[in-house]
Amino acid sequence: MQIGAIWLSTWWIFLSLGMLGWLFSLRHKSVNNVDTIWSMFFLTAALWVTMPQPQLSARQWLLVLLLAIWAVRLSAFLSLRNWGKTEDWRYAAMRNKRGRSFNWRSIYVVYLLQAAIAMVIFSGLLPGLLMSAPIGPREVIAAGLALLGIGLEALADWQLYRFKSNKHNSGQVLQSGLWAYTRHPNYLGESLFWWSLFALSVQSDTLWTVLSPVIMTFLLLRVSGVSMMEKGRTGINPAYQKYQQETAAFFPRFNRVAGKSVNQSQAKDNNL
C-alpha cells in the first residue's frame, strides 16, 4: 500500500478522537480537553500504522518510542494543569463570541480543525514509521535532540506551573530558569522535537516531509502559540511588556542573563 493511501486510511482515528473530545466537552462545558487530545492524535495513528507490520526495524521502534514519550508526557501534564480549571481564555473568548451556538460550532472550529491539522502534520512521520532502516550516527544525534526538546518543554512547563501555583505570584511574570533566556522555552522545545523527528526519518526521496516541522513551527510562532499569547491577555500585562523588551521571544538570548548577573554583582559591590 502506498504512503498516500495509508495516510488517508487514518482519517477515522483523527475524527473519532476529535468527536470523543467534543462529547466530553458538552458534559464539562469546556473544550480544554482538546489540548490533552492533541498529542494523542499522533501516537494513536502511529501505533495503528506500525503495529500490523510483521517486524519493525530499530529506527521504527525508536521513532515510535520518542513519539510515545512526547505524547504521554504532554497529555498527562495538560490534563493535570487543566483539571478543575476554568476554560482557557482563548477558548472562552470563542465561546463568548458565538454564544450558545458554540456548543455545536466547536465541533468544527475546535475539534475537527485540530484533527485535520494533526492529520496533515502526521503525514510527515509516515516515511519514518513505514520504512525499515538501521540506527546510525544520524539517528542517534536526532534522537538525542528529540529528547532534549522533550526535556526543555517538560522543564519549562513545570517551572511555569509551579510559578503560577504560588498565589503570591499573581500578576507577576516568571523570569527565572529557562524563562530567563526566552519567553517561550516550552514552544522552543516543541519545535526542536519536531525538527528532530524530521532529521530522524527523512530520506532523499521524502524531503517533502519537511512540511511537518515547518507547519508545526509556524503554528507555534504565528497562530496558536507565541503570537496569540502575546497579543491576548498575557500581552497587556505591564510586567510582561517589560519582560518582552528584555527577553527574546523564541530563540534564546544569553546576553540578557549575563548582563543581569553583572548588574547584580555591581549592586552588591556598591552596597559594601
Brief summary of the model shown:
Helix content is 71%, strand content 0%. The protein is an all-alpha fold.
What does this structure look like?
The structure is a single chain. This protein is an all-alpha fold and 272 residues long. It folds into 2 domains: 1-132, no CATH class; 136-253. Helices cover 71% and strands 0% of the residues. The protein is built from 13 helices and no strands. It has helices at 3-8, 11-28, 33-50, 58-82, 89-98, 102-122, 126-130, 137-165, 185-201, 211-223, 226-231, 238-246, 255-271. Helix 2 (11-28) packs antiparallel against helix 6 (102-122), helix 3 (33-50) packs antiparallel against helix 4 (58-82) and helix 3 runs parallel beside helix 6 (102-122). The longest helix is centred in the middle third of the chain and has 29 residues, at 137-165. The termini are far apart.
Primary descriptors:
272 residues, mainly alpha, 2 domains, 13 helices, 71% helix
Which helices and strands occur, and which strands form pairs?
Blueprint lengths: L2 H6 L2 H18 L4 H18 L7 H25 L6 H10 L3 H21 L3 H5 L6 H29 L19 H17 L9 H13 L2 H6 L6 H9 L8 H17 L1
Number of helices in the DSSP assignment: 13
Total beta-strand segments: 0
Q: What's the pLDDT, averaged over the residues?
A: 90
Q: What oligomeric state do these chains adopt? A: single chain
Task: Please state the structural category.
Answer: mainly alpha
Which consecutive residue ranges, at least 5 long each, have pLDDT under 50? 261-272
Largest sheet entry? none
Distance between the termini: 75 Å
Helix fraction? over 70%
Portion in beta strands: under 5%
